[in-house]
Amino acid sequence: MKKLVLWLVLLCASQACLALAPYVQGAKLPEAELPLQLALIEKKLAAEGFKVIGRHAPKGLPGRASLVVTDRAVLESIRAIGGSAIIAAGIRVGVQSDGTVSYMNPDYWYRAYLRGQFKSAQQAVKSAQTRLAKALGEGRTFGGDVPEGELANYRYMFGMERFDSGNTELSSHASFEEALKAVQEGLAKGAGNTSRVYELTMPEQKIAVFGVAMNDPAVGEAWWVNKIGSDHMAGLPYEMFIVGNKVYAPYARYRIALAWPALGMGQFMGIINAPESIRSTLTSVAGGAEHTN
């Protein structure tokens, strides 16, 4: 009996140790204007083999920005997996004008976004994580804890969406090329008061991903980010992606919860309109019909 109790205690302890947080605190930089901070971070990342594909300075969040980079080995893993794995192409770094630096925890985000295919990319993910730490420093992790084993099928609570819930689909087109054209044109004309942060396309696999800035002061990202925590800058920008002839975006009750897993229900209720506002905005970019719940 004592051995059983000891085994259970050790099992619980091991599960606790396997909890992951979405962000890693980097080494703080001297206070400076945000463009200078971003330029310095870009140099550090380039020295470790990362390629910058986008900058995002959200309207309504002064002194805060994110930088999006790619890693060659991670992209090759995504290319081999195909499908919705394309959403994981961008590696996000948060930067603030006071010198605060943070970056997405690859182990956390890739387990969530690659799901059952994570193991095939694990070596590339580990390498990217090591080089991010070398470039930016490796401090505490933060943002909340999710058990490692739950990330592949993550949802905030019972009844809420997962990665592949049905309402992730925004629009359907005649072909991949038509879907790509629709999103590109939607972002070019600023549909829904949006703008493009980055774009990465793998035409042979008929997959693509976009980082989208949602700039509307009433329903854009700033109003809900300010309510739930603007220190999670490495959680932005929001993604939309194409697989074949269909355009998708993770539903916000999944995507926001994944990026802010420590949110209390009261905080979530404070942004109760955000999920449908985000879906409506991205649907307009994707050239789809308006959705109603």
Tell me what the structure shows.
By secondary structure, this protein is of the alpha+beta class. It has a single domain, classed as TATA-Binding Protein (2-Layer Sandwich), CATH 3.30.310. The chain contains 10 helices and 13 strands. A hairpin with a 2-residue loop joins strand 12 and strand 13. The longest helix has 19 residues, at 118-136. The chain is globular, with a radius of gyration of 19 Å. The model is unreliable at 1-16 (pLDDT under 50).
Give me the strand/helix succession: HEEHEEHEEHHEEEHEEHEEHHH
The number of domains is: 1
Q: Which stretches are low in confidence, meaning pLDDT under 50 for 5 or more residues running?
A: 1-16
What percent of the residues sit in helical stretches (DSSP H or I)? 25-40%
Shape: globular
The CATH topology is TATA-Binding Protein
Count of alpha/pi helices: 10
**Quick one: biggest sheet?**
6 strands, antiparallel
> Structural class from helices and strands?
alpha+beta
The top-level CATH class is Alpha Beta
User: What is the CA-based Rg, rounded?
Assistant: 19 Å
Please list the strands of the largest sheet in the order they lie side by side.
Answer: 3-4-5-6-2-7
In CATH, the homologous superfamily goes by the name: TT1751-like domain
Calculate the mean pLDDT score and round it: 93
Say what oligomer this is. Answer: single chain
End-to-end separation in angstroms reads 52 Å
What is the second-level CATH architecture? Answer: 2-Layer Sandwich
